[in-house]
DNA sequence: TGAAGTTTAA
């Protein structure tokens, strides 16, 4: 592993990308020289002979009591790797795309001499991997289009539209949509939904409405399904007012259905506009549509947020009397809110009430129960519920694992956390960003740099794209534990990826650099922040 | 990811 000063030196001399690659290479070399080839499952790379892997930098010794993968499994992996060639090709393309480019054209040029067999599924994989980096993603897509085997695929176009929208490159996104239109038959409701959702997320509410209004110009019919997508996008992205306006504009053109009203009621409730939610509920009844369990549950959620549990009880009773009894979602919301309000006893009472009413808990319900129990410090009870749920026919999902891992990390139980991560692999439950976040945080806190890099590399291989929150978590965590060199590296990498660091992350890093009198680095970070700000697209 | 619920935070 590179030492701290070497990191910093590399950071100042080569910039982040090369330094990052160097780090990853060093980690790779270590693991590869220990045991098997790099394509094998990650856990295999730990020594299987019972010896410990000790690193001079880390003070953490990887647990050897956990038998991660049996030797038999290792052999199985070597034999059955049907997609091995494709995987290698994905890796090869990824390595090229990981360099820094200033334009998609540059990416196309870089890929010019790349002779790999490309298939649509492989392109999908690469696009997913780079879904937070529009330049490599779009450049790669353009390069793929130039290959002789290329055939237009609506799916791939949709993916690229989504990436461009996600990274707020709306002008380029529209150019691509026009291209899709000209090629014919490529624009669908899926495309339009992505456009409307991404515009709304970027705060461009009016543009989202215009996109819907003009749908027919792209050869699609405006229907209630599309309108519900529009209203939902606006509501979910803090644009309830726009949603209500759009509803009034289009309601005569397209008769609303119960989805429409539930979207609006939920949106108003989330925006804490209870009077407007009430209006939507009445409007629903005026249209001859009865409020359903979803409508009531949205209201209950709103009162839960206000901690008005008396009102919640009243609505629960009203639901029963109107023959629209609460379901597992309703109970989850009430129990979770009581738990968060530190009323654990009452929360568990809801669990009893639900059982009494013959409502069966599901995985999400158990997840919530595990969460409130661990937050209340009742780890043992949480573990018991975790053991029980599969017996009751509810398989743990990614949220179950994330909650359990987070609880384990909160109590510095790394071995348990890693054991759970391993269990996910065995049960084919795909981890996500939230799985790794508490682990990364703990690594920063404890200065386990080797494991930190191992986990980051593992994430990349599992197509878990690191985003702004993760970078800030890393920078903050490393500031806290005093590894400023590495914190600077991550900061730079984040900026060069076009992300705008959170202002408190920036201030914290600057403050720490000041305290340690690292003036050169401080100046560099200041310039990077300026660069990041100037790179942002005005909304 | 999409009509409601469960992880998470500077």
Q: What would a concise description of this structure say?
A:
This protein is mainly α and 539 residues long. 69% of the residues lie in helices and 0% in strands.
Molecular structure report:
It is a single chain. This protein has 539 residues and is mostly helical. Among the domains are: 81-164, no CATH class; 188-279, Tetratricopeptide repeat domain (Serine Threonine Protein Phosphatase 5, Tetratricopeptide repeat, Alpha Horseshoe). It is built from 29 helices and no strands. It has helices spanning 4-14, 16-34, 71-79, 84-97, 104-111, 120-129, 134-146, 154-166, 170-183, 189-201, 205-213, 224-236, 240-250, 258-270, 274-286, 293-305, 309-321, 328-340, 344-356, 363-375, 379-391, 398-410, 414-426, 433-446, 449-461, 468-481, 484-496, 503-515, 519-535. The chain starts with a helix and ends with a helix. The model is unreliable at 1-85 (pLDDT under 50). The structure holds one DNA strand of 10 nucleotides.
């Amino acid at each position: 592993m590179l030492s701290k000063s070497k990191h910093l030196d590399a950071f100042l001399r080569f910039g982040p990308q090369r330094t990052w690659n160097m780090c990853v290479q060093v980690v790779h070399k270590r693991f590869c020289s220990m045991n098997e080839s790099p394509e094998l499952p990650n856990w295999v790379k730990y020594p299987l002979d019972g010896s410990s892997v000790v690193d001079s930098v880390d003070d953490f010794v990887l647990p050897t009591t956990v038998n991660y993968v049996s030797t038999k499994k290792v052999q199985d992996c070597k034999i059955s790797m049907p997609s091995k060639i494709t995987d290698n090709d994905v890796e090869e393309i990824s390595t090229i795309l990981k360099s820094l480019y200033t334009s998609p054209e540059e990416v196309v040029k870089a890929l010019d001499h790349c002779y790999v067999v490309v298939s649509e599924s492989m392109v999908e994989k690469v696009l997913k991997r780079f879904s937070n980096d529009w330049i490599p993603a779009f450049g790669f897509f353009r390069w793929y289009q130039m290959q002789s085997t290329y055939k237009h695929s609506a799916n791939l176009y949709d993916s690229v539209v989504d990436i461009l929208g996600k990274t707020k490159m709306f002008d380029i996104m529209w150019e691509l949509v026009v291209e899709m239109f000209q090629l014919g038959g490529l624009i669908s409701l899926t495309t339009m939904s992505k456009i409307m959702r991404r515009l709304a997320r970027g705060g461009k509410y009016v543009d989202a409405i215009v996109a819907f209004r003009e749908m027919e110009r792209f050869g699609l019919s405006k229907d209630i399904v599309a309108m519900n997508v529009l209203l939902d996008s606006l509501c979910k992205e803090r644009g309830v007012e726009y949603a209500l306006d759009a509803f009034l504009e289009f309601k005569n053109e397209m008769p609303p259905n119960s989805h429409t009203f539930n979207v609006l009621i939920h949106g108003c409730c989330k925006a804490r506009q209870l009077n407007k939610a009430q209006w939507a509920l009445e409007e629903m009844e005026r249209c001859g549509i009865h409020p359903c369990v979803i409508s009531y549950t949205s209201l209950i959620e709103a009162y839960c947020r206000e901690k008005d549990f008396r009102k919640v009880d009243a609505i629960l009773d009203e639901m029963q009397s109107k023959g629209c009894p609460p379901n597992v979602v309703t109970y989850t919301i009430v129990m979770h809110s009581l738990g968060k309000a530190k009323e654990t006893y009452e929360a568990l009472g809801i669990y009893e009430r639900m059982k009494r009413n013959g409502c069966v808990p599901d995985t999400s319900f158990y997840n919530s129960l595990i969460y409130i129990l661990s937050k209340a410090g009742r780890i043992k009870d949480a573990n018991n519920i975790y053991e029980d749920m599969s017996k009751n026919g509810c398989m743990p999902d990614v949220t179950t694992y994330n909650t359990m891992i987070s609880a384990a990390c909160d109590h510095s139980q790394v071995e348990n956390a890693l054991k759970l991560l391993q269990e996910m692999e065995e049960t084919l439950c795909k981890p996500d960003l939230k799985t790794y976040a508490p682990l990364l945080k703990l690594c920063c806190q404890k200065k386990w740099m080797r494991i930190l890099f191992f986990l980051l590399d593992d994430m990349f291989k599992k197509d878990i794209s690191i985003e702004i929150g993760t970078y800030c978590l890393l920078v903050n965590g490393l500031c806290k534990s005093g590894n400023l060199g590495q914190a600077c590296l991550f900061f730079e990498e984040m900026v060069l990826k076009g992300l705008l660091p959170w202002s408190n992350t920036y201030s914290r890093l600057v403050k720490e650099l000041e305290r340690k009198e690292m003036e050169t680095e401080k100046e560099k970070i200041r310039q990077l922040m300026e660069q990041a700000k100037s790179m942002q697209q005005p909304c």
